């Protein structure tokens, strides 16, 4: 028996590795006086005395039986996104230096500059004499004496925050270096090779390393969905809550109406409240508190959550002045030079944070979402540019003509003689005219600038279908009405001007407490959501049930068809359970396309995808049944990478009656007769589901 190693403290080890509170052998170890029993990890056999002995594999590096796989896989993904360890070090270093610079530079501007002398406010000042830098800057001793105790108090708080940030950065970099060793030794991927390695390759290497290193104790093998569940555990909950309209991310403005609102500060507060705070519904990063799974405690938990929301809103309200000042300084230092150099950049469009949460699929990583929305940027810009008002266009063209004329003359004169710039307010006029010129050009539609004109409603519908091919978002109220200004106005809330994005971020300290207070009425709904849409997966922990991509439980009736699963009445889910807008089906298709070797565990998923592959082989080339479904349009345009809408899809989309989207009927082959799902063998990439 000397050849077998004995593990100490079986109960504690089992709890740490298996995410469970009571090990199955706890009672046995307490009641029995025998030697400690070992936990089976790989092999088990019985000797002559009928004692079960487990052989623990030899440790490979420091990655055997990792307790917190969520953090481990998240660091692994972060390492891939940043491009290695040294870019992460530089990012943390420059973030700390940037924080110090903002504090120091703000202090310098407020207390160390002689503004009366700089602006020559003294009427007896000689304006013909040029001022030097030393003339308008106080000495170091004078500067220190001018700083009040209140400002010193703020600087002290900032220094404490900076020290805390440095400690956290050092802690993170310690584990990031371990991630670097994992890439180099376990995955055999050097940092210099990351630029030429895609994420799917890294996942394949992780799956190959699992049997050797046993990172996950419960499974001999892990698949792509296991890794995504770990990295996106909380993100999937957030996407599901937004999809079910559980979070009140709307602000009412008098005389304007309601608009969707989600800023970085508000998102951080929501994630802190729902996932990361010590009083959040989560006992640890992989397990929901047991009380949230008990129906009898829902009212008590809702009252507790309401108190936490009020407390968090009050803290945001008290810190609003400080946060507001920091926001103004941060955005000024970030965008002042950009606005001066390229004022037209404020007229460019970007996807709002609300759009990123609304358009995100379940189990979609950040870089995958970014790439998809980047592909949609150009058609979305063309779509909104087609709504330029003729009156606005005429007005903007004349503003461009007048501004460009005056600006051109001033520029030519300044080139001829640079003393023109020393004339009072000339430089200011040039700057203002540049901003006005950029803003006026932004009001002119792209097709007008290129010399073309709008071709009517058909053009708007055609452009909108190109957008749908990437964003995969179509509320029922938008069907057949993409050419109307009402739909365009709602779409602008998802695809907003950069100037609006900056304005929303600056207003975040003021609006965040109001939105949090409106969340109080949803406290009970949030508690019920956690209980009803949380499932425990062996080896993974508690995950959002929507992230399981279970189309039988969360499928939308408009995206399914009656087939081998029975009548539609049996297939349709209650509205409370279904994913809105076909998000469950689209997420399943998107995940399967990104990971063609992934084998779904549910028969309904395999049947859904198999029927879809068959339909894509026959229906899309033939331009028939599947082309008349929005899912077929999405697959054709997003997966195969074409922006040309099918005529059948266009005519079907423009039809005014309520469309009935259906997948082709499932084939009659019984999925249960296929035998067990394939094991570790990875099938070849199906050409029909390949990414462009």
From TrEMBL:
<dbReference type="GO" id="GO:0005776">
    <property type="term" value="C:autophagosome"/>
</dbReference>
<keyword id="KW-1133">Transmembrane helix</keyword>
<dbReference type="GO" id="GO:0061709">
    <property type="term" value="P:reticulophagy"/>
</dbReference>
<dbReference type="GO" id="GO:0000422">
    <property type="term" value="P:autophagy of mitochondrion"/>
</dbReference>
<feature type="transmembrane region" description="Helical">
    <location>
        <begin position="151"/>
        <end position="174"/>
    </location>
</feature>
<keyword id="KW-0472">Membrane</keyword>
<dbReference type="Pfam" id="PF04109">
    <property type="entry name" value="ATG9"/>
</dbReference>
<keyword id="KW-0812">Transmembrane</keyword>
<dbReference type="InterPro" id="IPR007241">
    <property type="entry name" value="Autophagy-rel_prot_9"/>
</dbReference>
<protein>
    <recommendedName>
        <fullName>Autophagy-related protein 9</fullName>
    </recommendedName>
</protein>
<keyword id="KW-0813">Transport</keyword>
<feature type="transmembrane region" description="Helical">
    <location>
        <begin position="309"/>
        <end position="333"/>
    </location>
</feature>
<dbReference type="GO" id="GO:0006869">
    <property type="term" value="P:lipid transport"/>
</dbReference>
<comment type="function">
    <text>Phospholipid scramblase involved in autophagy. Cycles between the preautophagosomal structure/phagophore assembly site (PAS) and the cytoplasmic vesicle pool and supplies membrane for the growing autophagosome. Lipid scramblase activity plays a key role in preautophagosomal structure/phagophore assembly by distributing the phospholipids that arrive through ATG2 from the cytoplasmic to the luminal leaflet of the bilayer, thereby driving autophagosomal membrane expansion.</text>
</comment>
<feature type="region of interest" description="Disordered">
    <location>
        <begin position="657"/>
        <end position="692"/>
    </location>
</feature>
<keyword id="KW-0445">Lipid transport</keyword>
<feature type="transmembrane region" description="Helical">
    <location>
        <begin position="499"/>
        <end position="519"/>
    </location>
</feature>
<feature type="compositionally biased region" description="Acidic residues">
    <location>
        <begin position="666"/>
        <end position="675"/>
    </location>
</feature>
<feature type="transmembrane region" description="Helical">
    <location>
        <begin position="85"/>
        <end position="110"/>
    </location>
</feature>
<dbReference type="GO" id="GO:0034045">
    <property type="term" value="C:phagophore assembly site membrane"/>
</dbReference>
<feature type="transmembrane region" description="Helical">
    <location>
        <begin position="425"/>
        <end position="444"/>
    </location>
</feature>
<dbReference type="GO" id="GO:0034727">
    <property type="term" value="P:piecemeal microautophagy of the nucleus"/>
</dbReference>
<feature type="compositionally biased region" description="Pro residues">
    <location>
        <begin position="677"/>
        <end position="686"/>
    </location>
</feature>
<feature type="transmembrane region" description="Helical">
    <location>
        <begin position="394"/>
        <end position="413"/>
    </location>
</feature>
<keyword id="KW-0072">Autophagy</keyword>
<comment type="similarity">
    <text>Belongs to the ATG9 family.</text>
</comment>
<dbReference type="GO" id="GO:0034497">
    <property type="term" value="P:protein localization to phagophore assembly site"/>
</dbReference>
């Amino acid at each position: 028996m000397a050849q077998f190693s004995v593990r100490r403290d079986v109960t504690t080890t089992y709890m740490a590795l298996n995410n469970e509170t009571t090990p199955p052998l706890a009672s046995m170890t307490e009641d029995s006086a025998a030697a400690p029993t070992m936990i089976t990890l790989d092999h088990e056999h019985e000797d002559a005395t009928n004692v079960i002995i487990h052989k623990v594999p030899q440790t490979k590096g420091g990655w055997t039986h990792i307790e917190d796989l969520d953090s481990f896989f998240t660091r692994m993904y972060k390492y891939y996104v940043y491009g290695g360890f040294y870019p992460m070090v530089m990012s943390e270093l420059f973030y700390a230096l940037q924080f110090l610079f903002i504090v120091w530079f703000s202090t310098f501007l407020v207390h160390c500059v002689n503004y009366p002398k700089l602006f020559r406010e003294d009427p007896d000042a000689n304006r013909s004499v040029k001022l030097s830098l030393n003339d308008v800057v106080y000495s170091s001793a004078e500067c220190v004496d001018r700083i009040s105790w209140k400002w010193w108090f703020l600087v002290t708080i900032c220094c404490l925050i900076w020290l805390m940030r440095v400690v956290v950065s050092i802690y993170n970099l310690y584990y990031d270096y371990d991630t670097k060793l994992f890439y180099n030794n376990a995955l055999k991927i050097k940092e210099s090779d990351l630029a030429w390695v895609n994420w799917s390759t890294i996942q394949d290497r992780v799956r190959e390393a699992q049997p050797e290193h046993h990172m996950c104790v419960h499974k001999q093998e892990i698949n792509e969905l296991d890794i995504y569940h770990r990295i996106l555990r909380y993100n999937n909950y957030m996407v599901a809550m937004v999809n079910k309209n559980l979070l009140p991310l709307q602000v009412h403005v008098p005389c304007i109406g309601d608009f969707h609102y989600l800023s970085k500060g508000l998102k951080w507060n929501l994630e802190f409240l729902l996932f990361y705070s010590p009083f959040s519904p989560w006992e640890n990063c992989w397990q929901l508190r047991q009380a949230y799974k008990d129906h009898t405690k829902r009212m008590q938990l809702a009252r507790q959550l309401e108190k936490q929301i009020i407390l968090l809103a009050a803290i945001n309200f008290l810190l609003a002045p400080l946060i507001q000042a920091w926001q103004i300084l941060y955005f000024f230092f970030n965008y002042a030079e950009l606005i001066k150099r390229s004022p037209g950049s404020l007229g460019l469009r970007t996807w709002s944070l609300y759009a990123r949460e609304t358009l995100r699929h379940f189990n979609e990583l950040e870089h995958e979402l970014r790439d998809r929305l980047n592909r949609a940027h150009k058609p979305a810009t063309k779509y909104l540019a087609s709504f330029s008002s003729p009156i606005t266009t005429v007005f903007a063209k004349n503003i461009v003509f007048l501004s460009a004329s005056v600006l051109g003359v001033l520029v030519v004169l300044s080139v001829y003689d640079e003393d023109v710039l020393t004339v009072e307010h000339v430089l200011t006029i040039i700057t203002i005219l540049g901003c006005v010129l950029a803003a006026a050009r932004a009001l002119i539609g792209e097709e007008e600038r290129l010399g073309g004109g709008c071709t009517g409603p058909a053009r708007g519908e055609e452009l909108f279908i190109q957008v749908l091919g990437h964003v995969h978002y179509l509320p029922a109220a938008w069907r057949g009405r993409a050419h109307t200004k009402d739909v365009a106005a709602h779409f602008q809330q998802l695809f907003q001007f950069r100037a609006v994005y900056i304005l929303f971020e600056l207003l975040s300290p003021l609006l965040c407490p109001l939105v949090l207070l409106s969340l109080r009425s949803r406290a009970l709904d949030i508690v019920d959501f956690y209980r009803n849409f949380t499932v425990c997966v062996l080896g993974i922990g508690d995950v959002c049930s929507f992230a399981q991509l279970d189309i039988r439980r969360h499928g939308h009736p408009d995206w399914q068809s009656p087939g081998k699963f029975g009548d539609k009445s049996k297939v349709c889910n209650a509205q409370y359970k279904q994913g809105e807008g076909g998000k469950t089906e689209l997420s399943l298709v998107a995940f399967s396309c990104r990971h063609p070797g992934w084998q779904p565990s549910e028969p309904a998923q395999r049947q859904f995808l198999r029927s879809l592959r068959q339909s894509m082989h026959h229906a899309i080339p033939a331009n028939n049944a599947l082309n008349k479904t929005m899912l077929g349009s999405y697959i054709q345009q997003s997966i195969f990478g074409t922006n040309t809408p099918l005529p059948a899809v266009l005519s079907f989309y423009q039809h005014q009656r309520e469309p009935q989207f259906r997948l082709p009927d499932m084939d009659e082959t019984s999925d249960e007769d296929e035998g067990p799902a394939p094991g570790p063998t990875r099938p070849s990439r199906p050409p029909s589901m390949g990414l462009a």
